[in-house]
Amino acid sequence: MKVGLFIPCYVDQFYPKVGIATYELLQKLGCDVHFPMGQTCCGQPMANSGYQYLTKGCDANFIANFSGFDYIVCPSGSCVLHVKDHLHDEKQEELATEIRKKVFELTEFITDILKVDHIEGSFPFRVGMHTSCHGQRGLKLSQMTELNAPFFSKPEQLLHNIKGLDLVSLTRKDECCGFGGTFCVTEEAVSVKMGQDRIKDHESHNVDYITGGDMSCLMHLEGILKRQKSNIKTIHIAEILNSLEN
């Protein structure tokens, strides 16, 4: 299984350990992983700001880098959803359509494609799972609490068998952290207050770490935690799952 590793630009620049953990984890799970060196931004920031027409170069570059893989895997639900919904190229639309169907968020790929229902590892800490909006509502990685339906969570399913990990049950499982990409810039005060409220839920459950599938949300929460001089740390789910023994 030939897998193209799609690493968001902000992860590449600020949190390279997340990209490395994702690469190592996929290898340990038996994938033939490749990192296309020419990849850049997928175009989401421009599209979110109303400038979708400026992303043609990003789209063409993404297609050039990721065509030919069986699957494309990314440790970011928001970037995956953007590509799934918005990757187009009038010169090679058929290829763009094919690639859109091959893009998967990391935990989605592990549970749905690799059919791995548990991962053995060790992370002896009390952990709160932040469920990002794009992953939950766009990619359906977990159930929305406002629906009268059985609960499920693909990320939590993978965390449950990690040795020593105490996964808490939050009061508001799917509350937005307030990041929202460019929203945190245009509506800074609202964004920060939402982040503070999200952190309070984790604090009330005495967590050591907040984890999640989108480093963008965790970056937002991390900034607030540091300003509050909190002892709570953030960690991407890939870094926890990568404690898997060879």
TrEMBL record:
One of its GO terms (cellular component) is cytosol. It holds the Pfam family CCG. This is L-lactate dehydrogenase complex protein LldE. Residues 3-83, 127-221 form the Cysteine-rich domain. PANTHER family: LACTATE UTILIZATION PROTEIN A, UNCHARACTERIZED PROTEIN YKGE. It comes from Flavobacterium saccharophilum. One of its GO terms (molecular function) is oxidoreductase activity. InterPro entries: Cys_rich_dom (IPR004017).
